[in-house]
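Here is the promised in-class demo. Please do not try to memorize the tokens; focus on the logic of going from shape to residues.
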């Protein structure tokens, strides 16, 4: 069995939603990855041609989409040929009785046609069902807006930010009010301003939109936040824009109820205003997590008799690893219990050394995620527990977005993944790791993995309780 065959076996054990069929359906989307899958014997059902129901993985510009695929654009005839309500509900697996029991507004013609647009752009059945059964903005927006307007917004996203169909669908389906925004005067001008102010390029804006599509609705609030941050801390417009890019949700935070108390707490811990600004830029999510309420308890935990960390050291950890302060203390305690439970010889002093080696960034990692990485290292990389524990960086690396694609790529090139040093796998830069290979081929493979995670075709175990920004 290939190394990735073992990975699938491990994935099925840890992730019930993962299945060989799901991997097969996904990997048929690209020639390079399809060849890798069939060659390594991962999926018996891989075919030479992707089934029609599998969305395209390769990027398609809006012009190509309309020219090459007549179904991607609704003409006047199609507008008149919407499915009946019964046919529509049946196609989504929703019974008439269930729909009637929800006491929702009638199923409009536009809703039926809009779901057809989403289907043609590769949206899954579950996603369309979720949108139809949803309440509030999702249901009402797609009930009212015209399918031509929906396609206009999707095609604009694809052309303006070089998105593929599924990426454009993800943005609109996760933030339905997007279809009501004026593209040039609302969305376009705000995103252009963010690029010019923060120094982002279009690819970075694209990633930000995929992660936080709601940001397009915060244009007016941005100016309020700039004024508040300047008054409280003397932050520049560029510094605020940098924070917003990392955490768009901060535009929804209250200056008086959230930002100001956080600032006062950090100053009381001995940080200067310049250090607070640096902390906000590095980890803007801290502002909205009730930090000013929970930080004292976390510092006390670090200063406990078992760990023996001084208050000054605890504050220094906050300055250098603010993301470790996202999870609750209970999650920190869970991390400690996981380490001590790995063997009778492991002591609290060992745990402290283990944390120190990764500058305490391990704090907050959940037991399931940590055990999954141990299992992956054993099943795929053939490394025993004690050997893995000598490389704590494996537990804090971006496992799903860096480690796993690296192993998969090497396996697809016929390399023995058991020979890859753990340190090389986790600490080397992307350029160093792939220096022997064509980067365009690497990027195609990495995109396949991003799509795999994005589309939910395999439910991956998360290795932390918070998203990492880098």
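The designed amino acids, position by position:
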């Amino acid at each position: 069995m290939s190394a990735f065959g073992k990975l699938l076996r491990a994935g099925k054990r840890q992730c019930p939603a993962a299945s060989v069929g799901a991997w097969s359906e996904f990997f048929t989307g690209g020639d390079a990855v399809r060849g890798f899958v069939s060659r390594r014997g991962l999926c018996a059902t891989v075919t030479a041609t992707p089934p029609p129901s599998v969305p395209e993985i390769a990027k398609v510009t809006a012009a190509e989409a309309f020219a090459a695929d007549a179904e991607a654009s609704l003409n006047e005839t199609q507008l008149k040929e919407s499915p009946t309500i019964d046919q529509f509900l049946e196609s989504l697996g929703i019974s008439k009785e269930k729909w009637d029991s929800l006491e929702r507004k009638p199923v409009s013609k536009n809703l039926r046609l809009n779901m057809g647009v989403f289907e043609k752009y590769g949206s899954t059945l579950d996603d369309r069902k979720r949108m139809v059964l949803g309440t509030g903005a999702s249901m009402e927006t797609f009930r009212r807006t015209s399918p031509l307007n929906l396609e206009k917004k999707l095609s604009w996203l694809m052309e303006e930010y070089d998105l593929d169909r599924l990426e454009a669908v993800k943005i609109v389906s996760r933030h339905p009010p997007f279809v009501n925004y004026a593209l040039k005067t609302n969305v376009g001008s705000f995103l252009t301003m963010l690029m010019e102010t923060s120094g982002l390029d279009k690819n970075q804006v694209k990633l930000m939109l995929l992660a936080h599509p709601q940001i397009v609705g915060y244009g007016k609030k941005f100016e309020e936040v700039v004024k508040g941050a300047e008054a409280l801390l003397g932050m520049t417009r560029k510094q605020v824009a940098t924070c917003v890019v990392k955490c768009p949700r901060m535009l929804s935070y209250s200056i008086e109820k959230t930002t100001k108390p956080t600032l006062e707490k950090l100053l009381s811990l001995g940080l200067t205003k310049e250090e607070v600004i640096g902390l906000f830029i590095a980890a803007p999510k801290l502002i909205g997590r009730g930090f000013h309420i929970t930080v004292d308890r976390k510092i006390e935990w670090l200063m406990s008799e078992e760990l023996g960390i001084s208050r000054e050291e605890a504050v220094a950890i906050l300055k250098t690893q603010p993301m470790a302060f996202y999870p609750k203390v209970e999650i920190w305690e869970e991390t400690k219990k996981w380490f001590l439970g790995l063997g009778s010889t492991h002591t609290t002093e060992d745990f402290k050394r283990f944390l120190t080696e990764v500058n305490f960034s391990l704090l907050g990692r959940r037991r399931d995620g940590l055990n999954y990485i141990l299992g992956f290292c054993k099943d795929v990389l053939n490394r025993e527990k004690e050997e893995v524990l000598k490389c704590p960086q494996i537990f804090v690396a971006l496992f799903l977005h860096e480690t796993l694609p690296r192993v998969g790529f090497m396996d697809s090139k016929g390399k023995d993944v058991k020979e890859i040093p753990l340190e090389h796998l986790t600490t080397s830069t992307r350029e160093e790791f792939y220096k022997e290979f064509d980067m365009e081929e690497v990027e195609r493979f990495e995109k396949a993995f991003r799509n795999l995670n994005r589309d939910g075709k395999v439910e991956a175990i998360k290795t932390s309780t918070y998203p990492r920004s880098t």
